Amino acid sequence: MGSRPAHAIFHSDYSIHNQEARFRKNGYAQAYEHEQVVTLVNRALVYFDALKFLNAHYIRSYTEPREITVNPVNAAVPGERAVVMLREGYGVIGLKDAWTLEELQRGHINWHFGRFSMEEMKLIDADPLRALFPAEPAAS
């Protein structure tokens, strides 16, 4: 290692020098003063926080499982439906097929995807029609 500079610095698209950040892309260089960098970073953080809030708000807005139309590009059969899966006290945790027990017995393949706890996975395995799950126990 010695006094040689780190190899990665020569491949960066930016550098920091005194009170400015210098960016390069396709041979074009742009320098931003400290205040400009802070403004850009703060705008990005506000945008991220707004998206995070909207996502959490939308997740919580569901209080009961709801049947929705599957996009025709993803549908196994025309007019396929899905069910929004929920955890009590939280909101949306995933989607599942909307097949009835009779349709499953006739050969339709059940599917689900989302973020599930191990306990929720056991409940899904035990009851493929389940779409509402109990609240997670409070952490101690």
Account of the 3D structure:
It is built from 3 helices and 8 strands; from the N terminus they run E-E-E-H-E-E-E-H-E-H-E. By secondary structure, the chain is an alpha+beta fold. The strands form 2 sheets. Strands 4, 5, 6, 7 and 8 form a 5-stranded mixed beta sheet that branches. It has a 3-stranded antiparallel beta sheet with strand order 1-2-3. A hairpin with a 2-residue loop joins strand 2 and strand 3 (28-33). The mean pLDDT is 89.
Notable characteristics:
single chain, 140 residues, five-stranded mixed beta sheet, three-stranded antiparallel beta sheet, 3 helices, 8 strands, elongated
Task: Explain briefly what this protein structure is.
By secondary structure, the protein is an alpha+beta fold. It has helices spanning 34-61, 101-105, 118-126; strands at residues 14-17, 20-25, 28-33, 66-69, 81-87, 91-97, 112-114, 132-133.
